[in-house]
Amino acid sequence: MGQVAVVLRVMPQGVETDLDQVAKGVRASLPEGVTIRGMQVKDIAYGLKSLLVAVVMNDAGGLLEMTERALAKVPHVESVEVMEQGLL
Questions:
Q1: What domains appear along the chain, each with residue ranges and CATH number?
Q2: N or C: lower Cβ tally within 10 Å for the chain?
Q3: What is the pTM of this model?
Q4: CB 56 within 8 A of CB 4
């Protein structure tokens, strides 16, 4: 079984959302076996920003979907989208 690198875009509920708090929630909610490789705030438009989260995980069935669901449950997160995915 190989490893997969994934970049996820976490969108906050609004421009007033504290992305530092969202980032803390992301770190705390990741399933076992998923490692954060980096986090970056990205400007979208009109003051709205997103959080790009780079993670590495085993290429196990369902782990990516489990990660997406876990991040979607973080307070003040509107949506989670896979931006990039590739085998290591």
A1: 3-87 (3.30.70.60)
A2: N
A3: 0.92
A4: yes
